[in-house]
Design goal:
448 residues, alpha/beta, EreA/ChaN-like  fold, nine-stranded mixed sheet, 11 strands
């Protein structure tokens, strides 16, 4: 049975929570909280929960329609997401949302190739098509850095069309990676332990050359050329940062984690600066895992020296930022047992006693919004550091405490939290392995 303390805390949460009942006006208080913010970062407690994707999409649609947001930036690779961007803005030949999502072939495919994302991409295209011809269309962009080889290909393809001589120079520089058979792990190990020379000098030189020729390339044919140059330049920047990231993996987890989140934050900055050239201040919705978007300073990540996107964006943009998290108590989740293994529909164990999720479950509310701004009286009640659950693309129930929990101060981590007590796994577009019937005993950090 829950102890008296958590019962009292749950009672306070229930008193000040805003129940979500499936009505059109459910998120009115959240819209009020967001106000005139430029950046709304919406997290997820797992990479495989239907309700997180569904509700995040509903909130984003309202932000686009009611508050003028014109960009959605997600925890996905830049070239894969840019294909979706071209589709939703009506500037490519993909006939359907499913085709536009077909570049997402890297594990975990279900993270972006699922029915909820498909529906949102279809909505974006329909919304953009309804706008006046000269209106700013909503874009879809990736912030992550795993696409080293795909980004190399994108840079070369761009230069072959615009400057064949420069393409030859780029090909020569990027040929430094040829000996690793497109295996970034092998590259990181070989260079990290000194078995092979790194490609750092080459990737930096290529990015600098592109940057020097900015005016020449970007002004060749108006706005379209400017966008295409920006796309190529971001790929070159990604190659530079990814090269450093894969080398850093063998120096320690914190080093590589910080590089990744700094890259995502830097990409967001570059994206906003580019889009602002359209003549108005861009508003961006960001979709990533809670562990990236909740302020790291409010978690035990900070004690290990880690930073994340939520912290970096808050530090840069201050009160123009709103951070929103999701939590769940139990249900199912689409996840893998080991890296690169097929997705399974896994049962989520009930949250650990005393955790934030356990307290929220004790409220008896199936779904609610909790505001951590506007001097909500519940803030001091939840200020004590408590366990919070995080499920990435890996879920291992038998090592639940070690693999999937960390300590956090929720009111400092987020500006608002949405709790959905019982959730279900996303439905992948690709064939999924049968539902898991047993659990595993290995321990391994979850992939966020």
């Amino acid at each position: 049975m829950p102890d008296v303390t958590t019962k009292n805390i749950a009672g306070a949460v229930r008193e000040f929570a805003h129940p979500l009942i499936g009505a059109t006006e459910d998120y009115n208080p959240l819209m009020d909280l967001i106000g005139n913010a430029r950046f709304v970062l919406i997290g997820e407690a797992s990479h495989g929960t239907h309700e997180f994707y569904e509700q995040r999409a509903l909130i984003t649609e309202r932000l686009i329609q009611e508050k003028g947001f014109t960009a959605v930036a997600v925890e996905a690779d830049w070239p894969d997401a840019y294909r979706v961007n071209r589709y939703v803005r009506g500037v490519d030949d993909d006939p359907t949302p499913a085709e536009a999502l077909s570049s997402f072939q890297r594990f975990p495919m279900w993270m972006w190739r699922n029915t909820d994302v498909l529906n949102f991409v279809a909505w974006l295209r329909q919304y953009n098509d309804s706008l006046a011809e000269n209106a700013t269309k909503v874009g879809f962009y990736g912030l992550d850095l795993y696409s080293l080889y795909a980004s190399i290909t994108a840079v070369l393809n761009y230069l072959r069309k615009t400057d064949p001589e420069a393409a030859q120079r780029a090909y020569h520089r990027y040929s430094c990676f040829e000996n690793f058979a497109e295996d970034t792990q092998v590259y990181g190990y070989a260079t990290g332990v000194g078995l092979s020379k790194s490609c750092e000098e080459e990737v930096v030189s290529q990015l600098l050359e592109l940057q020097r020729r900015n005016a020449e390339y970007a002004k060749q044919d108006g706005r379209v050329a400017e966008d295409e140059f920006f796309y190529a330049q971001q790929n070159a920047r990604l190659v530079k940062n990814a090269e450093e990231y894969y080398r850093s993996m063998f120096r320690g987890r914190v080093s590589s984690s910080n590089l990744r989140d700094r890259h995502m934050s830097e990409t967001l900055d570059q994206l906003v600066a580019h889009l602002d050239r359209q003549g108005h201040q861009t508003k961006v919705v960001v979709w990533e895992h809670n562990s990236h978007l909740g302020d790291a300073r409010a978690t035990d990540m900070a004690q290990a020296g880690e930073v994340n996107v939520g912290q970096l964006v808050r530090e840069r943009y201050g009160d123009k930022v709103v951070l929103i998290g999701f939590t769940t108590y139990t249900g199912t989740v689409t996840a893998a047992t080991n890296w690169h293994e097929p997705a399974q529909l896994k049962q989520i164990r009930p949250a650990l006693s005393g955790s934030y999720e356990d307290i929220f479950h004790q409220t008896g509310l199936s779904k609610f919004l909790l505001n951590f701004k506007d001097n909500n009286p519940v803030i001091p009640v939840l200020q004590e550091s408590r366990l919070e659950r995080a499920i990435g693309v890996i879920y291992r129930p038998q090592t639940e405490r070690t693999s999937h929990y960390f300590y956090a101060r929720l009111p400092d981590q987020f500006d608002a939290v949405i709790h959905i007590d019982d959730t279900r796994g996303v439905e992948p577009l690709d064939r999924m392995a049968k539902q898991e019937t047993g659990e595993v005993s290995e321990t391994f950090p979850s992939g966020f």
